[in-house]
Amino acid sequence: MSERLQKVLAEAGFGSRRECERFIAAGKVTVNGKVVTTPGTTVDPDKDTIYCNGIGVQKQRKIYFLLNKPKGYVCTNRDELERLRAIDILRNITQRVYTVGRLDKESEGLIIITNDGYLANRLSHPRYEISKTYFVEVDGYLTDEAIEALKKGIWLSFGKTKPVMVKDVHRGRQRSRFLMVLKEGRNREIRRMLAEYGFKVRILRRIKIGNLSDPHLKTGKYRKLTDHEVAQLYALAEKEHTTGQTKEKERGKYDTATASQTE
Q: Would you please indicate which residues are annotated as catalytic (active-site) residues?
């Protein structure tokens, strides 16, 4: 299967895609004995002979891990502040891996780490609407008004949030605990939504990605995903992608019909 050259190099561990683009532009990459200097060139890593800086490039097998991220770790491959990274918890991994989406530094819970860019995009991009479930604990009594607002969507600086499911609510005067199910994951979205109603988040823990969960996986530990779990994630991503395309087509038809009626 044809893939972009910089993608193949990045997945083989030669650096980020931008770094690999620079290698290509500098004439340090050959394909089948010929120097290639055009980023975006497509290659077949199963058939083509590729070298970067004189080192043979082999197609990397796809690997998938489920990590229960602790607080204090960031979900990025490059951090100028040199903070602890979630990917550094994994040991003896030679492939270039990355987290699927992000959990902010103060949040904890389940996150997938892989080198499968296709699946990572499908699971993390808001347009595919893959649900993520979070356990939340806040200071104070969670009001009905706040719950209804979360369910309808709240206006923040980037626009209106998508409706959120709120369930299993246990309310007290000093603390409230509940589950939130989101189908988008903007930066610190849960914290920002709750802050709009004066709630400070004490605990924010992701406990489920789609249907994937593992209550026995301890904080700071990780494990390989089973073939069955990977297949389920692919099935979910493809299903949600198809559903999303259908919704977009329906919205397009509606917009066209509305326009014709108003003209």
A: 104
